[in-house]
Amino acid sequence: MIAEPATLQPVAAPRRAGSLRRHAGTPTWPAAVARFLKKKPMGAFGAALIVLFLALALGAQWLAPYPYDVGTAADRLQGPSLPHPFGTDANGRDLLSRVIWGARVSVTIGFGAVAISTLVAVTVGVTSGYFGGWVDLLVQRLVDIWISFPALVLLVSLVAILGPGLWSTTLVLGILLAPGTARVVRSAVLAMREQPYVESARCAGAGHARIVRSYVLPNVSAAILVLATTQLGVAVLAESTLSFLGYGVPPPFPTWGSMLSGTGRAFMLQSPWLSIWPGLAISAAVFGFNMLGDALRDVLDPRLRGR
Known about the structure:
Helix content is 70%, strand content 0%. It is mainly α and 307 residues long. It has a single domain (39-63, 96-300), classed as MetI-like (MetI-like fold), CATH 1.10.3720.10. Helix 3 (41-58) packs across helix 5 (95-131) and helix 5 runs antiparallel to helix 10 (208-245). The longest helix has 38 residues, at 208-245. Residues 1-24 have low confidence and may be disordered.
């Protein structure tokens, strides 16, 4: 029995990389979000808390029912009620409005400090890990000196020198948060620079800037993102500590730490809501950032995806 000759089939044109990825089963972003909600419910809850605080920070002037710096003597130290759900402070100011406006300070300082620290840490860590040798030795000894100073003492001293304020606090926090991240970035870059694709790019004549931009940074970006998310909680807690000690954003602008200090501490037993609400706000913000950071670590680290 003679087989029929095979017919020639037209060769399909090669698809673009994006089309290949879409047909390979890569989920779209709604599916990825749904999967994240299912597999990491605590991380999703942390993300929801962060979105809530971002909304409060951006819309404080519309969401706050009363001005944050205006109160009446007749409303002094009132408990939670319908007109004032969180109560009032010793000056008759609405506590809910002050907590909402305090979110703007914490979010601004938190994201600003982490942006500065990430920029400094990536620059220092990539330079140290990629070039190695005497550059790595010199940079790491400077980082050791950087870390050796007591963080709180140095933080208070620098803010006292620069003067209390929003931008001085943000700058000082960003500088002090950088060395820990720089160490982690340096370790990741040390592992990346010996990979075969980096050696191939170097043999092909690629310069240092192109290798770092195209091969090193994309492969350490997951670790940088996780560290930045976790450091947001640290920055919020550090800003609250500074405000509690009187070195943060000066009054009359409200901060959660300053609300815990002063009248909040003086009338804690008589009016406990003065400390409860700003304390809960700080705890919720730090909890949200930490939960999201842990979830992102599990999702972005290939060794933990199947756990």
